[in-house]
Amino acid sequence: MFLATMSDEGKRLFYSLEMVLAKSDESFDSTEEALIKTHCVEMGIEYKGINDINVELRELVDNINSSLTKREKKIIFIELIAVALVDGEYHENEKKVIEEMRKLLNIPAEIAEDAVELVNKLMTVTHSLQNFVEW
Fold this sequence. Notes:
Blueprint: H1 8-24, H2 30-43, H3 57-67, H4 70-85, H5 92-104, H6 109-134
Helix pairs in contact: 1-2, 1-3, 1-4, 4-5, 4-6
């Protein structure tokens, strides 16, 4: 949604983060992969697959905090929530990664809760529209 507006560094860091998140529940399904591929198209970067990224969450967040704007951090946060929710399940490991991201990015808990709620609504509408189109 907002990824195209980010800096090249922001896009690179986001891609790495979404791979970390996608790996966190040990279940990388086709809906997650489809969303990540869509993100790559939106950002104008190449999709390299789930096994291409091997970095630590803390290192990524340190780079984000030192090089990205507050707006880019919010974009990353909401887009990561979308990756976590796209398969219709919000796994405990995904929740842990999202919560760790929230803390490391200094996002207040109430703002994060609002973000999850808004992304959940967006996912519901998106799935409804996809079903409508497929009908």
